[in-house]
Amino acid sequence: MIAFVDVHYGELRARAGCVVAAGWRDERPVREAVAEVDVAAEYVSGELYRRELPPILAVLTGQDDLTCIVVDGHAWLGPDRPGLGVHLHRALGERIAVVGVAKNPFVGAPAIPVLRGESARPLWVSAIGLDAALAAAEIATMHGEHRIPTLLRRADHLARGT
Hints:
Elements: E1 2-9, E2 13-21, E3 31-38, H1 48-60, E4 68-72, E5 76-78, E6 81-82, H2 84-91, E7 97-102, E8 112-114, E9 123-128, H3 132-140, H4 150-160
Parallel strand pairs: 1-4, 4-7
Antiparallel strand pairs: 1-2, 2-3, 5-6, 7-9, 8-9
Helix pairs in contact: 1-2
């Protein structure tokens, strides 16, 4: 099972949305979850994990059959600089592969650009526990005709409460 997660912030609370699918190309999830927690940290460029990990770990509670998690952000920020994906991978005991899908590049991040649909703007894909080229190929072929795959879009909507 593959989880797709995203986080949205209010002033004091963060809400994480999670959709779980059986396969990369699925149009619909097999289950969904949301979790709300207090905002743990202020936003600091390059330290997104401090803010994102608590709501992501909360929404993943009880999701015991996962083989991969896709996060909105970078797995790596540099060759030896962990990003959100690496921090999540480590927090989960390095048992589950994590793929980072970012909407914007991060200078120095070893991410693979992936164009989807008719968009001229790529998504930036990196991974830990899974070959990054394979992860990029899977993201490229996910369901949906737009830049953002259907399941990632659904996780975003859950996180926003829409």
